[in-house]
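Practice problem 4.
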């Protein structure tokens, strides 16, 4: 009995001890939670702004109507130019009064097709996921379905596109048809038409071939079935429709054959769209505007998806010119030679600002470079020696735009046409055909996701050149346009500088007893970077320190500016800042305010991330180049929802007052939109949100923007990672530094990394001397071996101890060359030979660079492979 009492007392004592331990642990956890709560609350409270509305310019007020039989009408004249309209064809013609040069929006030479006679081409999307394309000539102009209104300085053209004939194949032929009817109504009927002389043998054979491509025999069920699961090629559709008419296969026959197999047939209401285009002469430029919100349609089944603007403007016929080039903003810029059509690569079409990013998110990028400038151009000299050209600038709506090039050929027997063209189009509706079972599923079942009509005033300004011009003239003209539009003030520093990206804290995966966990690891602490800066005391360095805020390179939400402890103390950071600035350098701290890698700080993807077309938060991973898809083992990263950006930026600004210099890795170039079907934030609205926040940031911080779009360089003290290459599309003639020529004096900018490229350091020195760009290195204090098999395995050969001598040598040669040139203001640039360019500077000095990996002789100079010659001021 006593033993039982003692055991019970002992048990109560142990239980009390366990209870006390539990209470103590709860107290500790509660204290930790209370201590952590303010940080968590700060992260969780990501404010959300209301969805902004697009500010519509509206249609210009009409001052009168122009009769369709009025002939050629003078619309406006200014700056020595005159704008005319042919009321019958709708050709817009600009005449330069002094030179007599003319530019036409349409082209008619007896050989041109409907596209060359159309001021607009429209593409529209059906709810059946099919796309259709119409030209204005066939579907509006030739039937007189348009209205012309005078407006101040120009004309308002209202085009009434109407479907006179359907191209929906399901309205002509059945999905299933009995073998008996197939042979009787199709094959036997064909034979009758031939015997009666209504069809030739060749026509009948072509129809039989089309049928054999489209239908497959099913003996077990006694029928033929249409074997395309989706829409067949348009050429086949047209052939089959023509066949159905030739054999007299009526709608009643179609309904009866379909009913036999329980298939319902819908005869859609004809499509119709009313599209308004305005054209004005403004300061001698032709300005064309298409307000998407003014589009009207009679059929909810269809939505206008894309509109091409003046596809024939300033085109050059291969029969009338042999010398000319087309300029596109691919990467740094690229040229096409006219009359070089290649049937394997019939046309070049690329989105501006990578605006198809969310549609092609899960695919490897097709091109290595994006288009970061909304411009295109063409210049040529005709067979009589007369030269002229034009530069198209997309002033509004570029975030929805495309640039398209079609090259001409004198011999069209292998395809192609006579005409060399470059023009723009825009998506009035963005869409994606989303795989139902995931982007990498073998099941091809898809659903259509679209934005609906996006309100935008798509505007293209055409700068006109009434004499000989080249890419340099176009670049300088666009540069001046940016200066005038954004109030930029050119400045040219002759001070040599070296740009350093410094890698701070990364997140590495480790294991303890086989259990994985992550740990912050500083590749370069404050004190280590201080030693590097001291070693580079003779170098004027711009230091961009990455991995310093909110968890480092794998950052949490950026609505605070919390320094990463792994890099060191605030005192060490302040010592580093003072050392950098004592040598006339600058220290920038890097932040990603739109990207989130670590969601532990209260970032909820479902409510805080932007959405893709699949209706889910977009999670971006590294591409596996071996398999061509996202690497499932890589870390997912999210993009902040556009409506959460302003609050995040405001809080970051409040918390980062001690840091005047900021580097942004995302806000300069990220294409931004959210496609949640419950609330679409379109790219036009999203761009406005980004611009508003860049204004706030640049007003209070000195900014570095990584590879920024051209309309954002006004916010940047430095633009980093500017490529000198284009995508090298098959029919391109040469890369040109169009982008750098535009940026000259508008901001300082860097090359890509000297040490992370396959090219020698000489390649980057050539860019510095040719274009005034800053050489750039990415460095760390620690050995990169720790990054193997991590998210950061792309960083190689960056340990400063190994690179120090090369960095100093590049800076010394760059400083010496810049001193010999004496200026960064470019006043001339030309191509001397393939990959050989000459730059003339305001100082009078000139530089010839050879990007070839073999010696060349040019302009009286012998240049080594990747060599240069500086000819100083006379």
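Answer key:
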């Amino acid at each position: 009995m006593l033993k039982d009492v003692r055991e019970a007392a002992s048990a109560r004592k142990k239980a009390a001890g366990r209870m006390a331990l539990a209470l103590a642990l709860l107290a500790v956890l509660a204290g930790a939670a209370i201590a952590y709560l303010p940080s968590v609350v700060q992260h969780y409270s990501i404010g959300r702004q209301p969805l902004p509305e697009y500010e519509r310019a509206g249609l210009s007020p009409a001052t009168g109507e122009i009769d369709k039989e009025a002939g050629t009408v003078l619309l406006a004249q200014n700056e020595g130019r005159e704008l005319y309209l042919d009321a019958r064809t709708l050709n817009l013609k600009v005449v330069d009064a002094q030179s007599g040069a003319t530019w036409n929006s349409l082209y008619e030479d007896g050989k041109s097709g409907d596209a060359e006679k159309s001021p607009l081409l429209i593409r529209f999307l059906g709810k059946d996921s099919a796309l259709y394309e119409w030209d204005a000539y066939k579907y509006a102009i030739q039937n007189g379905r348009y209205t012309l209104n005078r407006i101040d300085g120009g004309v308002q053209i209202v085009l009434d596109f109407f479907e006179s004939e359907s191209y929906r194949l399901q309205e002509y032929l059945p999905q299933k048809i009995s073998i008996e009817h197939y042979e009787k109504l199709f094959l036997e009927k064909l034979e009758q038409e031939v015997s009666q002389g209504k069809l030739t043998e060749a026509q009948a054979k072509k129809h039989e071939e089309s049928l054999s491509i489209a239908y497959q025999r099913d003996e077990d069920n006694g029928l033929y079935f249409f074997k395309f699961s989706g829409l067949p090629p348009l050429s086949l559709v047209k052939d089959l429709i023509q066949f159905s008419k030739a054999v007299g296969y009526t709608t009643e026959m179609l309904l009866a054959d379909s009913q036999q197999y329980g298939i319902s047939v819908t005869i859609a209401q004809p499509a119709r769209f009313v599209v308004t285009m305005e054209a004005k002469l403004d300061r001698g430029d032709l300005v064309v505007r298409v307000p998407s919100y003014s589009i009207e349609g009679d059929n909810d089944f269809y939505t206008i998806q894309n509109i091409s603007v003046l596809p024939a403007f300033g085109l050059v016929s291969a029969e009338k010119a042999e010398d000319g080039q087309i300029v596109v903003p691919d990467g740094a810029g690229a040229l096409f030679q006219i009359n070089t059509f290649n049937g394997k690569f019939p046309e070049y079409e690329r989105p501006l600002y990578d605006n198809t990013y969310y549609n092609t998110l899960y695919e490897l990028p097709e091109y290595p470079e994006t288009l970061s400038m909304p411009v295109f151009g063409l210049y040529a000299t005709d067979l009589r020696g007369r030269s002229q050209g034009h530069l198209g600038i997309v002033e509004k709506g570029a975030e929805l735009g495309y640039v398209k090039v079609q090259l001409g050929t004198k011999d069209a027997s292998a395809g192609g046409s006579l005409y060399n063209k470059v023009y723009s189009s825009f998506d009035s509706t963005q869409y994606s055909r989303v795989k139902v079972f995931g982007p990498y599923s073998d099941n091809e079942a898809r659903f259509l996701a679209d934005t609906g009509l996006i309100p935008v005033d798509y505007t293209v300004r055409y700068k006109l050149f009434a004499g000989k011009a080249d890419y340099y003239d176009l670049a300088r003209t666009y540069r001046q346009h940016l200066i005038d539009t954004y109030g930029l003030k050119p400045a040219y520093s002759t001070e040599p500088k070296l740009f350093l990206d410094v890698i701070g804290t990364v997140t590495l995966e480790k294991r303890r007893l086989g259990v994985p966990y992550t740990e912050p690891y500083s590749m370069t602490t404050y004190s280590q970077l201080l030693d590097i800066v001291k070693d580079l005391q003779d170098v004027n360095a711009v230091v961009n320190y990455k991995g310093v805020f909110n968890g480092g390179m794998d950052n949490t939400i950026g609505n605070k500016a919390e320094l990463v402890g792994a890099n060191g103390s605030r005192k060490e950071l302040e010592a580093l800042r003072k050392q950098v600035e004592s040598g006339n350098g600058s220290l920038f701290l890097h932040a990603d305010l739109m990207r989130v890698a670590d969601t532990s700080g209260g970032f909820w993807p479902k409510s805080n991330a932007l959405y893709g077309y699949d209706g889910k938060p977009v999670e971006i991973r590294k591409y596996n180049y071996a398999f061509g898809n996202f690497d499932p083992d890589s870390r997912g990263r999210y993009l902040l929802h556009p409506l959460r950006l302003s609050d995040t930026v405001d809080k970051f600004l409040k918390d980062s007052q001690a840091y005047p210099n900021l580097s942004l890795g995302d806000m300069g170039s990220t294409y931004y939109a959210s496609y949640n079907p419950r609330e679409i934030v379109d790219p036009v609205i999203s761009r406005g949100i980004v611009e508003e926040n860049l204004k706030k940031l640049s007003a209070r911080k000195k900014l570095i923007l990584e590879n920024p779009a051209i309309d954002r360089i006004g916010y940047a003290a430095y633009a980093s990672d500017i490529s000198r290459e284009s995508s090298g599309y098959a029919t391109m003639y040469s890369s040109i530094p169009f982008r750098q020529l535009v940026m000259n004096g508008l901001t300082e900018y860097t090359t890509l990394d000297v040490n992370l490229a396959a090219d020698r350091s000489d390649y980057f020195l050539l860019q510095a001397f040719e274009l005034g760009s800053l050489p750039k290195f990415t460095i760390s204090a620690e050995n990169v071996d720790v990054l193997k098999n991590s998210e950061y395995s792309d960083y190689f050969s960056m340990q400063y101890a190994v690179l120090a001598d090369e960095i100093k040598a590049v800076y010394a040669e760059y400083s010496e060359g810049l001193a010999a040139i004496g200026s960064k203001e470019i006043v001339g640039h030309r191509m001397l030979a393939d990959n050989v360019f000459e730059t003339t500077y305001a100082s009078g000095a000139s530089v010839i660079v050879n990007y070839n990996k073999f010696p060349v002789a040019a302009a009286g100079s012998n240049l080594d492979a990747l060599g240069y010659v500086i000819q100083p001021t006379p």
